[in-house]
Amino acid sequence: MPDRPDRLTATRLYRAGVWLCPPAFRRDYGGQMLQDYADARHDAAASGRSADRWRFHAQMFVDLARTISWQWIRSGIPVVALVSAAVPLLLAEAIAGVFSRIRFDLRTPEADADAVALFLIATTTVMLVASTITIAVWAAKPARRRQRRR
Prior knowledge:
Blueprint: H1 9-19, H2 23-47, H3 50-75, H4 77-101, H5 109-149
Helix pairs in contact: 1-2, 1-3, 2-3, 4-5
């Protein structure tokens, strides 16, 4: 009995790789990608040479990795992640710049510890608020698109 294509490890890995693509791309092209992979795998296996099979798998998985990365870049989600990280970091840097100009009286150790604690609390709060706002705006984006289409 020949091996079923869905039971082959390479086919499972390729299917998992296709699953890593953005959902919209996967819905539109995932089935065709899996069918193309199965056809090409069958052709490589028909040649009977082990080198052809290894070359085929290497080419397919390099192409899949390139497709995954390119499609995620095109989806815009990495830009949202960078902005989500950049906004709180820039705000924390601004707060650090403001606090670096403030002179602390170092004669009383309690005041210095209180100032450091205040600085850490303020920085953490600003970073959390900025991240929450950015992620909330990003998460609401698909819902707004769906409402406009109706």
